[in-house]
């Protein structure tokens, strides 16, 4: 892919938030694409209130958004990766649009609430800006294989889906400024994947979170989450999804199990960028396929292609799908809250007379 267009300055990545997502994921993927010759971005601009002494040689720090925009050849030549905590994005987007920025890649979850996500998308739309929400699993080669198998009828009609994303996350849970609930960590990826595979309309049947237990602390809502969904309207055959994320698990796992009327697919996604391979098996068949898979890097490549006008919207980045996911995450949060409140309500003492009724 060529980033340079004749007569136009190249696109410049601007990482707004240089923590785990900005530094370890987005910048890492941009470097991989440069090494592959797919994207020639050179030095990236970094905007973060915290200036790091150990900034890599291929990153240039800008103290604020205005300084980042001023460092670009033209404001609309920047691709702004909004990789700071979700609650900071609406304000930043407003500032950037006013300064002439028009190209964005936005981390998950889009915003702290569905209401704010709608505001964010409407703001971008009204300015004629292009915004790509992060849709990691739809860009996965494993997912695309699963989609192909479903279309080919390999397991019949889908009936249920189970997506598990587990990992130990004790240290980050103790000191996490970016997340307040396990519904914001792996779950946005899981809900989006469920909607991508099994579609909308979709309604919530269960939502729960639990605390992260440490030897001397109990961190509320960061130990894990569970969501139940039903996909399909009244005239459709329903598909149920169960999504579980255990952030106290001793092992890392990203597994999808899709059960159809005539069989079952089990897929394992890569558990980290250090080993970019997934696995796929039809239950009962001997062979297990190993699939090269680097979904985040593919998504970023496709997003740049789209921003250059050289490719379609990457899979699963339709804003409507993301808003549907945000609505379900909000509903799950409300359900988890109601469940927590119910569990905290003391059960009234029942008298002997009442017991004998
Ligand atoms: N796609 C993924 O797999 C993935 C993985 C990790 C995190 N994330 C998402 O990325 C977001 C950030 O998470 P993180 O783990 O990187 O958090 P983090 O705490 O590691 O990093 C956040 C960074 O943003 C900076 N920041 C805060 N406010 C800012 C502002 N207004 N402008 C610029 N920078 C600002 C902080 O100084 C910090 O360096 C979250 O929404 C998270 O869910 C996604």
From TrEMBL:
Database matches in Gene3D superfamilies: Dihydrodipicolinate Reductase, domain 2, NAD(P)-binding Rossmann-like Domain
Matches recorded under InterPro entries: NAD(P)-bd_dom_sf
Protein name according to UniProt: Gfo/Idh/MocA family oxidoreductase
């Amino acid at each position: 892919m060529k980033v340079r267009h004749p007569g136009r300055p190249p696109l410049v990545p601007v990482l707004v938030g240089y923590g785990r997502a900005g530094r370890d994921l987005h910048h890492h993927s941009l470097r991989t694409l440069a090494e592959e010759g797919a994207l020639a971005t050179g030095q990236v601009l970094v905007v973060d209130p915290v200036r790091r002494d150990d900034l890599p040689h291929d990153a240039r720090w800008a103290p604020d958004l205005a300084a980042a925009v001023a460092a670009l050849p033209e404001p609309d030549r920047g691709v702004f990766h909004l990789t700071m905590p979700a609650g900071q994005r609406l304000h930043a987007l407003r500032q950037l649009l006013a300064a002439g920025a028009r190209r964005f890649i936005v981390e998950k979850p889009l915003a702290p609430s569905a209401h704010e996500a709608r505001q964010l998308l409407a703001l971008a739309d009204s300015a004629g800006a292009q915004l790509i929400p992060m849709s990691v699993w739809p860009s996965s080669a494993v997912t695309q294989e699963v989609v192909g198998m479903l279309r080919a009828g390999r397991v019949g009609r889908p009936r249920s889906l189970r997506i598990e994303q587990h990992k130990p996350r004790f240290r980050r849970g103790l000191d996490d400024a970016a997340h307040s609930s396990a519904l914001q960590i792996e779950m946005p990826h899981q809900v989006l994947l469920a909607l991508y595979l099994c579609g909308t309309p979709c309604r919530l049947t269960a939502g729960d979170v639990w605390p992260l237990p440490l030897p001397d602390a109990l961190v509320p809502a960061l130990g894990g989450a569970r969501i139940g969904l039903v996909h399909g309207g009244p005239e459709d055959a329903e598909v149920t999804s169960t999504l579980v994320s255990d952030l106290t698990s001793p092992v890392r796992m990203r597994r999808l199990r899709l059960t159809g009327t005539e069989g079952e697919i089990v897929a394992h996604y890569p558990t980290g960028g250090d080993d970019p391979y997934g696995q796929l098996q039809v239950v009962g068949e001997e062979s297990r396929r190993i699939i090269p898979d680097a979904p985040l890097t593919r998504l970023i490549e496709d997003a740049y292609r789209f921003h250059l006008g050289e490719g379609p919207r990457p899979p699963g980045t339709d804003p409507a799908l993301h808003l549907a996911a945000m609505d379900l995450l909000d509903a799950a949060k409300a359900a988890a809250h109601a469940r927590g409140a119910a569990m905290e309500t003391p059960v009234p003492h029942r008298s002997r007379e009442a017991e004998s009724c």
